Amino acid sequence: MIETTKELGPEHVETPVAYDAIVLASFGGPEGQDDVIPFLRNVTRGRGIPDERLEEVAHHYRHYGGVSPINQQNRELKAALEAELAARGIELPVYWGNRNWDPYLADAVQQAYDDGHRTLIGVATSAYASYSSCRQYTEDIVKALDTTGLAGEVRLDKVRPYFDHPGFVTPFVEGLRAALAELAAAGHAPERTRVLFATHSIPMTAAVESGPDFGPGGAYEAQHLAVAEVVMREAGSDIDWELVYQSRSGPPSQPWLEPDINDVIEGLPAQGVEAIVIVPLGFVSDHMEVMWDLDNEALESAAEAGLAAKRIPTPGIHPAFVAGLVDLVLERVNGTPVAERPALTNLGPWFDVCRPGCCVGVQATVVEPVS
Ligand SMILES: CC1=C(CCC(=O)O)c2cc3nc(cc4[nH]c(cc5[nH]c(cc1n2)c(C)c5CCC(=O)O)c(CCC(=O)O)c4C)C(CCC(=O)O)=C3C
Ligand SMILES: [Fe+2]
């Protein structure tokens, strides 16, 4: 583990709370053709996404019968969390709710309330800072408390962004090690192999506002770069690597984080590269952005460029990830001091609660932390 060099104050850590239930908070996805358009409307309401982009994305879902894999993955994650909690003798029920599709966060909060729970801790299926990956989850939690009319009665907090928690990082390390071994066994020399760490692009403005003191791409990009470095080191590899972006939406006139994964792949043969490993570092499960943008598009770009290519798995329900999420909850129950919190980069452990003004993004409004 890297020793943290930053001054970490007690403001990073909330006081301990005897939470009585967990809310697994996710993105949500359609489960049939009729859900596709209403789901996309939910996601993009007020966000200025051009119609052509929506049609394009609708086509990704239609291709798979209108069903996103994300909901089934969350059912499996919920079951895995319940099994892990039971194995450790921890009596915390898990409620699952989404930001953009049924079951909604409001349903989860209402159900928890009906079952007698008042002090809830949220676990988001999203690991990094930024408006889309952190603060928007908090905003939607606040909205869920409003919608249900339970704002004064139920408390719902959220665990810290866990990008550098060992539970999130370990599955990538294992996957990378295995993929590199396979490529080497197939005769691809390390000096002609490249590792591409892939994550969701976000608007430049949102990247900067994810934490402006961390370089040109803000805390969002800095966190990915730091985790990628750890994954390479833990996998024992000194192969060349780079951070690339995918799934850009928004109008072409608006700058988003670059380079795009497909552009990078296209340029690799000219650099003497013949094999790549794609590490989906920005994602928690193999959902649509991974299945379509990586397994369809990026692997096709690789085939067109004549490259051997492997896409390693996301954390999903890897035992280390599941155990790590439970540890993140216990950290809040116990009020674990910052120095004892696991963090594999010198950027973390990240804050329990968004600082005022952090991860605000372009279209967002600031919400006070729930307490
Ligand atoms: C950082 C980030 C994550 C990772 C963190 C996390 O996991 O939360 C993520 C995850 C996901 N994004 C998803 C789906 C979509 N994201 C969209 C749009 C957008 N994403 C953005 C960012 C992110 N997105 C942004 C800046 C936009 C532009 C509009 C806006 O500013 O809000 C759109 C609209 C169409 C389009 O423009 O692509 C869709 C359909 C799904 C579900 C997949 C499934 O169904 O399996 C998941 C897990
Ligand atoms: Fe997205």
Automatic annotation (TrEMBL):
Positions with a binding annotation for Fe-coproporphyrin III: S68, Y137
Assigned keywords, A-Z: Cytoplasm, Heme biosynthesis, Iron, Lyase, Metal-binding, Porphyrin biosynthesis
Family: Belongs to the ferrochelatase family.
Pfam families assigned: Ferrochelatase
Pathway(s) annotated for this protein in UniProt: Porphyrin-containing compound metabolism; protoheme biosynthesis
An example Gene Ontology molecular-function term: ferrochelatase activity
Catalytic activity: Fe-coproporphyrin III + 2 H(+) = coproporphyrin III + Fe(2+)
The protein's Enzyme Commission number: 4.99.1.9
Binding site for Fe(2+): H200, E289
Gene3D superfamilies per the UniProt record, alphabetical: 3.40.50.1400
Identification of the protein by name: Coproporphyrin III ferrochelatase
Subcellular location(s) of the protein: Cytoplasm
The organism of origin for this protein: Protaetiibacter intestinalis
GO cellular component: cytoplasm
SUPFAM superfamilies the UniProt entry points to: Chelatase (SSF53800)
